[in-house]
Every structure is written in structure tokens, then in C-alpha cells.
Write a structure and sequence with these properties.
It contains eight helices and no strands. With 162 residues, the chain is mostly helical. The chain has one domain. Helix 1 packs antiparallel against helix 3, helix 4 packs antiparallel against helix 6 and helix 5 runs antiparallel to helix 7. The protein starts with a helix and ends in a 10-residue tail after the last helix.
Length: 162
């Protein structure tokens, strides 16, 4: 499970960063990536599928519709940086971004009873993303880190941690 989680973190990092790049930036930094993948959709779909697959294989099974609800919620939150929220005054809020992405698994918590784990993961994600994005202004570090946090924090959901 740990090896799969590390792989999930690496893949989420890559998808998250590719989804945040411009075509010119990708051409310079990642010339091996096909240009049709350089769009937000890559981040949205790639990270969501990795998380939902991980949850499906490593957590107790739930009704299929709950996976769908979580996937839709994650798709919506992974593309929001909460700059529209009145308290953020037009600025990106990565604390809220991490919290929102984490809370997208609430339908899974409903089905598995892992409420505490999902909430703890959400708070950890919010804090970790907020700290990383406050500590650096390097967009590569920020985006690779946010993707890695999404995938790597899945381990918090496993029983026996708490």
C-alpha cells in the first residue's frame, strides 16, 4: 500500500503540474508531454481518477454512487483556489484549496464511517498546501507539491493510523 501511495503521489504531482502549465511553458520544461494534455482537464481528471482508484482499492467498499459524488466534488474543488470567496479578496487561498479537495471525500466517509480520517486528511492537506504556497513563489514547487499532497495524504485514510 505504501508503494502504491508513493506512486499515486508522484502521478498526482505530475498531472497537477501539467494541468497548470501553459503550452509554451510545457514545451520548454516538459517537451515529452503531448500538447493536448497541457490543460486543466489533465489535472482534474488525472488526480481525481488516481484518488478514487486508491480509495476503491484500499478502503472498505461503498455504493458506486458515492465514488461518483466524491469524484464530482473533487473535480469541482481541485480547480478552485477560492479567490472568489469574499474573505479572500480576489487572492488564491491554498489553505482552503487543500481543505476543499480533502472534504470532497465526505461521501466516502459517509459510506465507510471514516469521518475522522477524512476530516484529519482535509485539515492536513489545507495546512500543508497553505504552508508550501506561503513559503515559496516557485510555481513548479507549488504545483508539484500540491499534487503530491493530494496523493501522499491518502495514507491518512487507512485504518490503524489513528
Amino acid at each position: 500500500m505504501i508503494i502504491i501511495t508513493v506512486i499515486a503521489a508522484i502521478l498526482c504531482s505530475i498531472f497537477y503540474r501539467i494541468g497548470g502549465m501553459s503550452k509554451e511553458e510545457a514545451r520548454d520544461k516538459l517537451p515529452w508531454v503531448p500538447s493536448f494534455l497541457v490543460r486543466s482537464f489533465t489535472r482534474d481528471l488525472g488526480c481525481v481518477l488516481i484518488v478514487i482508484a486508491w480509495v476503491y482499492f484500499f478502503l472498505p467498499r461503498v455504493d458506486g454512487i458515492l465514488y461518483f459524488y466524491s469524484a464530482v466534488a473533487m473535480r469541482a474543488t481541485i480547480s478552485s483556489y477560492w479567490d472568489w470567496f469574499p474573505g479572500n479578496k480576489g487572492e488564491d487561498n491554498f489553505f482552503m484549496h487543500g481543505l476543499g479537495v480533502g472534504l470532497s471525500l465526505l461521501p466516502i466517509a459517509y459510506g465507510t464511517g471514516l469521518w475522522f480520517e477524512v476530516i484529519v486528511r482535509s485539515v492536513v492537506m489545507g495546512i500543508a498546501m497553505g504552508i508550501v504556497c506561503t513559503a515559496t513563489s516557485n510555481v513548479d514547487v507549488e504545483e508539484y507539491s500540491r499534487g503530491g499532497i493530494i496523493g501522499g495524504s491518502l495514507l491518512i485514510l487507512t485504518s490503524g493510523i489513528f
